[in-house]
Amino acid sequence: MASERDLQIIRVIDLETTGNAPPAHAVCEIGWQDVALGPDGRWDLHGEGGARLVNPGRPIPPITQAVHHILDEQVADAPWFHDVARPILDPWPRRVALAAHRATFEQQFCTPAMTRGAEWICTWKCALRLWPDSPSFSNQVLRYWRKPAGLDHARGLPIHRAFPDSYVTAHHLRDMLNEASVAQLIAWSNEPGLLPRVRYGPDRGKEWREIDNESLARFLGDRDEDVRHTARTELKRRQGGGAVGHDTADWLLL
């Protein structure tokens, strides 16, 4: 039986913050839940997880308090983020990777210096690949659409608090790891999101392979990198798998 120090751990992280854009905004709570590889070769939740309130060093705006309900007086005497983050982000036994739902948000605050350059798994991007039939890809919609085995309903509440959200995400991550390798999840996470369906416009809700060339052409220069990436991936498929290599839509319109 593997000892505690031999376990392969992936730590799921969730942050609650004063806003979306550091350094103007800062962390006011960090939560975590581990997922570990068992001796049977299957991944499962490991340990109790936890959360720490953090002093963000600035008032929490009312519009943000309305999301997570953390009050200024609750964090006034809490430690600073840099004082608590490193042992949480780099636990012993050493984690294989960190994970979060829409991990690019957490990565803004959890810098490589704090994580010792950890790899990240984005469960949102991986859900797009593994479960494209989901009606939506938010943490909570996936929770109720998939109904992951073993998820304690009350322990996953309230939403928009750091531990319950990381606990729910950990169930998605566990199931992803039992479908695909760590390396594959990291690779998907390092690319823009591959969207299963068109998000907006006349073709909203259609699969990308269902739209015509003229419609696809309009998405190749979209300002959203996930939309651009998906459109170019579909273009590559229509070209028979060759290199995309087209900065304009001219090829499609011939």
TrEMBL record:
Give the matching CDD domains. Answer: DEDDh (cd06127)
Name of one Pfam family that matches: RNase_T
Keyword entries, A-Z: Exonuclease, Hydrolase, Nuclease
Q: Which organism is it from?
A: Sphingomonas baiyangensis
Q: Report the InterPro entries cross-referenced here.
A: Ribonucl_H (IPR013520), RNaseH-like_sf (IPR012337), RNaseH_sf (IPR036397)
Name the UniProt record assigns to this protein: 3'-5' exonuclease
Q: Name a GO molecular-function annotation.
A: 3'-5' exonuclease activity
Report one GO cellular component: cytosol
Asked if the keyword Hydrolase belongs to this entry, the reply reads yes
Q: Name one GO biological process term.
A: DNA replication proofreading
Using the record's annotation, list all stretches that form the Exonuclease domain: 9-182
